[in-house]
Amino acid sequence: MRKTRDDLTISEALRDPLIAMVLRADGVKLEDFKQLLETAAGKREPRPTPVGKMIGALASRANLPAMPCFG
């Protein structure tokens, strides 16, 4: 099976032994690091999915907004 992503999830990063060693060496508490990751994740723009990319490409060609509006 082929891995489709290169980034660690937050829970994977919190369990990673190398990251744990660096946090200890730097005097950073695991809970503080967890809060940092969760805050950063909440502020980050979502990655476009392949379908999202396709919708965006079609919308730009048709001069429409990239996100469909329902309602």
Name a few traits of the molecule.
71 residues; 4 helices; elongated
Structural description of this entry:
The chain is mainly alpha-helical. It has one domain (8-60). 61% of the residues lie in helices and 0% in strands. It is built from four helices and no strands. The protein has helices at residues 10-15, 17-26, 30-43, 50-62. The radius of gyration is 18 Å and the shape is elongated.
Give the distance, in angstroms, between the N- and C-terminal Cα atoms.
Answer: 41 Å
User: How many β-strands, per DSSP?
Assistant: 0
Strand content: under 5%
Structural class estimated from helices and strands: mainly alpha
- Provide the gyration radius in Å: 18 Å
Whole-number total of structural domains: 1
Largest β-sheet summary: none
* Quaternary structure annotation: single chain
Order of helices and strands: HHHH
Kindly state the percentage of residues in helix. 55-70%
Low-confidence stretches: none
Please tell me the overall pLDDT.
Answer: 81
Query: Which descriptor suits the 3D outline?
Result: elongated
Number of helices: 4
